[in-house]
């Protein structure tokens, strides 16, 4: 699957995936056209302050990200999807928002050939108030806790199955399912919805989720962070919670499919894919972050073994971790 990717890019390999270090636009050239089922990624955001992971400025951001969109479009299958998590930002020195995330949406759809399958919003209730000037000091703006997540596709009908990501029924719905006749009568509602007599008779195992995903990003003591600290290495500062890629991987792909993250950071997407039985390719431009991401796959290893493996990767040795007897449990189907 990854045989055409030159060894100089490769950092480590697991049972189902490959982490590489390089520019995604270059690496994707080595994948076959129409070979990828799903791309899930969170690129560096267009922030005003420069970050250690290499974010672009707002003026250049849309064209910069469009280059990656072009490279991704070539490798996506006709039934494939491209899920893009984008945070918002304010304009410099003003309490007004930048429109870069919406300009990315229009650029991808109007010029690159993508379709907007659906817009999602990731609500992080644990996000700290920001920006400090407008929210904390002057108190003239609300806390920015929502990221836009654009679900792009190449065709009108990309692969998807909402039944794979059902959410638990509310207590009220559970009560209704026990005795539907007690709680409603079949008739047309003022909204125009016609609820028939069969409503409530079928328990589908859960409710259809909304496009507002409430996922707190509160993990501050996981194995990855603890190990980075012991290694005296700087962990990736912009990690999204595993539940976010997990939702889209389950929703938009099947076991055995190929999932790609073109800005992989600490490789949250890769570990989620490994647990879900998807093949994966993760790409990051910084060797230190790409190497440290291997920690996610070594929870059963001794610290000494982890240190040895990470140091080899940092010195550009390709490590086949699937031969180190590392076990990542499959948690979901």
List descriptors.
single chain, 333 residues, alpha/beta, Rossmann fold, ten-stranded mixed beta sheet, two-stranded antiparallel sheet, 12 strands, 29% helix, globular
Give an overview in words.
With 333 residues, the chain is α/β, with parallel strands linked by helices. It has 2 domains: 213 residues, Rossmann fold, CATH 3.40.50; 40 residues, no CATH class. Helices cover 29% and strands 19% of the residues. The protein starts with 9 loop residues before the first strand and ends in a 13-residue tail after the last strand.
Chart the SSEs and their pairings.
Layout: E1 10-13, E2 17-21, H1 24-27, E3 36-41, H2 58-75, E4 76-86, H3 100-110, E5 115-123, H4 132-137, E6 146-153, H5 171-178, H6 180-183, E7 187-188, E8 194-195, E9 212-214, H7 223-231, H8 243-252, E10 258-261, H9 268-276, E11 279-284, H10 287-292, H11 303-314, E12 319-320
Parallel strand pairs: 1-12, 2-11, 3-4, 3-10, 5-9, 10-11
Antiparallel strand pairs: 1-2, 4-6, 5-6, 7-8
> Percentage of helical residues?
25-40%
What is the count of DSSP helices, taking H or I runs of 4+ residues?
11
Note the gap between the termini.
22 Å
- String of helices and strands: EEHEHEHEHEHHEEEHHEHEHHE
Count of domain modules: 2
- Biggest β-sheet, characterized? 10 strands, mixed
Q: Give Rg in angstroms.
A: 22 Å
CATH class of the largest domain: Alpha Beta
Strands in their spatial order, largest beta sheet: 9-5-6-4-3-10-11-2-1-12
Mean pLDDT: 90
**Residues in β-strands, percent:** 15-25%
User: Helix/strand-derived class?
Assistant: alpha/beta
